Amino acid sequence: MDENLFAQHFFLDNVPHWPCPFCAKGILRLKEEDFQKEDNGETETSRSSSQFDFDWVQYVFHGLLSCNLCNEKVVFCGTGSIERDYDDTDHGSSYCDYFEPKYFHPTVRIIVIESEIAVPRQVLSSVKKACELFWVDLDSCANRIRTAVEYILDGLLIERYRNLTIRIPLHTRIDMLDATKYTDLKTVFEAVKWIGNVGTHELGGLQRESVIDGFRMLEHCLSVLYPKTPVDTAQIITLAENINKAKGQSLYKRK
């Protein structure tokens, strides 16, 4: 997973090379003529004020991305603002527009699933929904990542209900995994659970970086359970152990 692709903002002269959601091999390109920005209503009204300044500007935008390999088309939209950039030249500073994507259709892939045909349908559905929500609602996105773990455990035949009616907590289900076979995965699943818990119970309190970590760990789990290539677990296990040790407290936004 290339975390640089999922930065919160982008500039038109440096658009991220988002992966194509159809062929998964190509890169989505943006042509200048396929991008349109407009002042939002408040900005348009405020421009007549004598106190109007660059930091009042808020845009809305929409655009069309095209895959450089299969020519798939992706529409996207979002918001934007103006950033002041200070430099060492005689000009002192300059202004540039930056943009924050909020929606892609079809959904941009955030993680690579190497063997989709082997992954349970409900897991794929949860991952897709998490990718949709990443751009607009981090808490709900984290919850969908957690849901994907629930479905992974279903696929591993770990009970979800006791006596057909009493729901078994996710933490308990993770503990039910065979420790001799899934020791490392149990550690990672627990860390993903903490991220999902924060997203579920602490509205607006989850760090963007923590959600990206959740995707990284989910991607790792899928590559271990449904592999195409060998995986290196050391970095993921260290990340998961640190989250577990803090019991999710390190995931909140820093004020």
Strands, helices and their partners?
Elements: E1 28-39, H1 41-46, E2 59-67, E3 73-86, E4 93-105, H2 121-134, H3 138-155, E5 161-162, E6 166-167, H4 170-175, H5 179-201, H6 208-225, H7 234-246
Antiparallel strand pairs: 1-2, 2-3, 3-4, 5-6
Helix pairs in contact: 2-3, 3-5, 3-6, 5-6, 5-7
As a percent range, the share of helical residues equals 25-40%
Strand content: 15-25%
Average pLDDT over all residues: 88
Radius of gyration: 21 Å
Order of neighbouring strands in the sheet with most strands: 1-2-3-4
Tell the overall outline: elongated
Sheet/helix structural class: alpha+beta
In N-to-C order, the SSE pattern is: EHEEEHHEEHHHH
Can you count the beta strands? Answer: 6
Residue ranges: pLDDT <50 for 5 or more in a row?
Answer: none
Number of helices: 7
Distance between the termini: 28 Å
Outline the structure in words:
The protein has helices at residues 41-46, 121-134, 138-155, 170-175, 179-201, 208-225, 234-246; strands at residues 28-39, 59-67, 73-86, 93-105, 161-162, 166-167. With 255 residues, the protein is an alpha+beta fold. It has a four-stranded antiparallel sheet with strand order 1-2-3-4. A two-stranded antiparallel sheet has the order 5-6. Strand 2 (59-67) and strand 3 (73-86) form a beta hairpin. Helix 5 (179-201) runs antiparallel to helix 6. The mean pLDDT is 88.
Concise summary:
The chain has seven helices and six strands, in the order βαβββααββαααα. With 255 residues, it is α+β, with helices and mostly antiparallel strands.
